[in-house]
């Protein structure tokens, strides 16, 4: 029996109906529309990747001068409290335990965690702040390493979003839409710029393990999926314990020669399947199998830190030697971009401080403060600074009023979408910039609001793409990361 005959025999009934589920509908539509349907091209020019500058496979030509080649996105899952870290509000000390004024709240939608509270008592930050650097940025005492580098950073204190709960909010800032299923920023970068290293993924995700685990939020692979883009643009997740990638090593007794022979056979079967079904994702599967085979040699070298000098661990902190810590993932991120990985996303959990800010926030800051400093200094000394964009932030902010009990020593904060703080550094940004202002309650924006769409448009600009022209044809629409609502690039943030 030939390979094709064997494949046909083994196609399941479910696969048959799935493959032919739209045939009757298509035939009916063709009858109604006639030749107009058949004459319509399936894709518009430029809707699929072409070979870009330098012959990079899968890259699309940039609209703007090349600036950024890599992105390291540090996402603080849960929403860091901006008034306890960067948005200094000394006037709030006079408002301790007083109710949030109605004219400040303005009927804002609340979460179910605080909507039943009889009062909304003001909780001023218990932490000390200092004005740092030439920029004069206020930074709390929990971030001593960050204080040293504020003049390398761009602070946006006026970010805002419509999403008030975690799942839609994280989806919004990662994919540009509160409904999951769209391509994330990393997938868009992979689609646009293509790969720089055929032996490593273009887009990598790591989920760091926080020291404190009081309230860890659930996150899933749909946040780093490719959505309607080809599957090759989805992230490869590196695990923080055990093998960095499942099944990266051959099973006992299976040499590389046998694995190679197996993959060659799978490729033949997949090619036959492509001829039969015509699904382009079949070729994506073939490419991913081949990449996995090459990663068997490249990934162990990447994740082996034995070659790093002691000075590296002094820079990032001792935690960098412990797999799974934020410091360890930050160091791996530098090693990845050094080897050509385009986009590295690190998630650090447990920032959802509904209670016990005094107990949890110091742990959170200790996890990320020195590693962020070390990462930026490391990128500088290795010549990667100008072509690598570093992003830090959560999905929304926190309320100035306390959730639950309030004391001078401790309090909690609910979700707050109206304003929050993010920062960027490197890669074409204007260092020492502080952009946007909020009111005395860190509740409403009073100057230079920045919507998530504006943020995405600016990041794409740094990557060399006009957000209105950078699109993908899907379901008859030119889909964009920034969607169809207005978005603007922020020149004040650019070098």
What does this structure look like?
The radius of gyration is 25 Å and the shape is globular. It has a single domain (62-246, 298-493), classed as 3-Layer(aba) Sandwich (Alkaline Phosphatase, subunit A), CATH 3.40.720. With 495 residues, it is of the alpha/beta class. Helix 13 (326-338) runs parallel beside helix 14 (357-381). Helix content is 33%, strand content 16%. The strands form 5 sheets. Strands 1, 4, 5, 6, 7, 8, 11, 12 and 15 form a 9-stranded mixed beta sheet that branches. It is built from 15 helices and 17 strands. Strand 13 (437-438) and strand 14 form a beta hairpin.
Q: How many structural domains are formed by the residues?
A: 1
Main beta sheet: strand number and arrangement?
9 strands, mixed
CATH architecture: 3-Layer(aba) Sandwich
Low-confidence stretches: 22-57
CA radius of gyration: 25 Å
Pick out its properties.
495 residues; alpha/beta; Alkaline Phosphatase, subunit A; nine-stranded mixed beta sheet; two-stranded antiparallel sheet; 15 helices; globular
Brief characterization of the structure:
The chain is of the alpha/beta class and 495 residues long.
What's the layout of helices and strands?
Elements: H1 3-10, H2 13-19, H3 23-33, H4 35-39, E1 70-76, H5 82-85, H6 102-105, E2 129-132, E3 137-140, H7 144-147, E4 153-160, H8 166-175, H9 185-193, E5 203-208, E6 236-238, H10 256-277, H11 281-303, H12 310-316, H13 326-338, E7 343-348, H14 357-381, E8 388-393, E9 397-402, E10 413-416, E11 420-426, E12 433-435, E13 437-438, E14 445-447, E15 450-451, H15 452-463, E16 472-474, E17 477-479
């Amino acid at each position: 029996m030939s390979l094709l005959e064997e494949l046909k025999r083994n196609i399941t009934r479910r696969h048959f109906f799935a493959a032919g589920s739209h045939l009757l509908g298509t035939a009916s539509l063709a009858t109604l529309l006639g030749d107009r349907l058949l004459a319509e091209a399936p894709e518009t020019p430029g809707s699929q990747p072409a070979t870009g500058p330098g012959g990079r496979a899968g890259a699309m030509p940039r609209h703007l001068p090349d600036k950024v080649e890599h992105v390291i996105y540090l996402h603080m899952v849960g929403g860091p409290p901006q008034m306890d870290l960067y948005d200094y509000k000394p006037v709030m000390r006079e408002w301790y335990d007083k109710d949030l004024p109605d004219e400040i709240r303005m009927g804002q939608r609340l979460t179910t965690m605080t909507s039943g509270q009889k009062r909304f008592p003001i909780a001023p930050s218990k932490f000390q702040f200092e004005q740092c650097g030439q920029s004069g940025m206020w930074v709390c005492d929990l971030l001593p390493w960050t204080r040293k580098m504020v003049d390398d950073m761009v602070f946006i204190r006026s970010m805002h979003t419509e999403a008030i709960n975690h799942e839609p909010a994280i989806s919004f800032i990662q994919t540009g839409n509160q409904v999951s299923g769209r391509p994330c920023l990393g997938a868009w970068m992979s689609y646009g710029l293509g790969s720089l290293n055929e032996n490593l993924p273009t887009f990598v995700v790591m989920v760091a393990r926080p020291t404190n685990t009081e309230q860890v939020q659930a996150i899933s692979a749909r946040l780093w999926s490719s959505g309607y883009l080809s599957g090759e643009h989805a992230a490869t997740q590196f695990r923080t314990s055990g093998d960095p990638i499942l099944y990266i090593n051959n099973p006992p007794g299976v040499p590389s020669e046998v694995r190679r022979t197996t993959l060659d056979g799978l490729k033949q079967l997949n090619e036959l399947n492509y001829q039969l079904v015509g699904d382009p994702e079949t070729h994506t599967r073939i490419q991913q199998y081949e990449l996995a085979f090459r990663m068997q040699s490249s990934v162990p070298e990447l994740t082996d830190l034995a070659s790093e000098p002691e000075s590296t661990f002094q820079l990032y902190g001792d935690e960098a030697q412990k797999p799974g810590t934020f410091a360890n993932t930050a160091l791996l991120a530098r090693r990845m971009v050094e080897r050509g990985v385009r986009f590295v996303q690190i998630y650090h959990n447990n920032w959802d401080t509904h209670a016990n800010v005094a107990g949890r926030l110091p742990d959170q800051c200790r996890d990320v403060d020195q590693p962020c400093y070390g990462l930026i200094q490391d990128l500088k000394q290795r010549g990667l600074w100008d072509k690598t964009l570093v992003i830090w932030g959560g999905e929304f902010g926190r309320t100035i009023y306390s959730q639950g009990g309030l004391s001078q020593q401790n309090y909690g904060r609910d979700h707050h979408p109206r304003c929050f703080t993010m920062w960027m550094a490197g890669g074409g940004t204007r260092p020492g910039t502080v952009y946007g202002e909020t009111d005395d309650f860190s509740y409403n924006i009073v100057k230079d609001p920045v919507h998530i769409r504006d943020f995405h448009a600016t990041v794409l600009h740094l990557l060399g793409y006009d957000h209105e022209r950078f699109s993908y044809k899907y379901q008859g629409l030119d889909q964009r990361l920034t969607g169809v609502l207005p978005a603007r690039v922020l020149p004040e943030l650019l070098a």
